[in-house]
Amino acid sequence: VILKNHLLNKKNLEAGRVLIKREIKKKSKLYVRPRFLIPITKKASGIRMGKGKGPISDYICFLKMDSCLYEVSNINLPNALKILKKLSYKFRHPIALVHKSGTRYYIK
Fold first, then answer.
1. Residue 95: beta bridge partners?
2. What's the pLDDT band for 12 if we cut at 50, 70, 90?
3. What was the pLDDT predicted at 51?
4. pLDDT at site 65
5. Which residues of 61-82 are buried (b: 16+ CB within 10 A; e: fewer)?
6. Which in 42, 59, 63, 98 has the greatest CB count within 10 A?
7. Residue 69 has pLDDT above 80, yes or no
8. What is the CB neighbour count within 10 angstroms for residue 8?
9. b vs e for 13-46, b when ≥16 Cβ sit within 10 Å of the residue's Cβ?
10. For residue 108, what pLDDT is reported?
């Protein structure tokens, strides 16, 4: 769960997904929740003003507070906390782990 409003691009989400998959191997299932629906356009450098809008360069997703990023099944708590600590370095904003019982775990 992300604890602040945040704009997320595909690179950040993919880096987190690869990190989680590396840790859990094939023991658990991983679900990625955000959907990228907002297109970002960008013109090439050296182009003069005018001449319309540039092509779509990337898609982003706006995450609101308490939005779920990843869902992992069949994982024990110590491994999940280890993954959370590594993920906290990937994302600029604070994140938390929510256990299925509703307990939240934070990284300092």
1. 2
2. confident
3. 84
4. 92
5. bebeeebebbebeebeeeebee
6. 63
7. yes
8. 19
9. beebeebbeebbeeebeeeeebeeeeeeeeeeee
10. 67
d(CA 26, CA 90): 22
Would you say 41 and 96 are in contact if contact means Cβ atoms under 8 Å apart?
no
Joined tokens for residue 87? 């993920």
Both structure tokens of 52:
């319309």
1 burial via Cβ count (<10 Å: 0-12, 13-18, 19+) = middle
> Which 8-state DSSP code applies to residue 61?
E
Q: How large is the angle between the packed helices 10-24 and 77-90, nearest 10 degrees?
A: 150
Q: Which residues contact 26 (CB under 8 A, 6 or more apart)?
A: none
Amino acid at site 58: D
Residues in the chain, how many?
A: 108
Using CA atoms, how far residue 71 sits from 2, 13, 41, 49, 55, in Å, is 12, 13, 30, 44, 33
pLDDT of residue 89 exceeding 70: yes
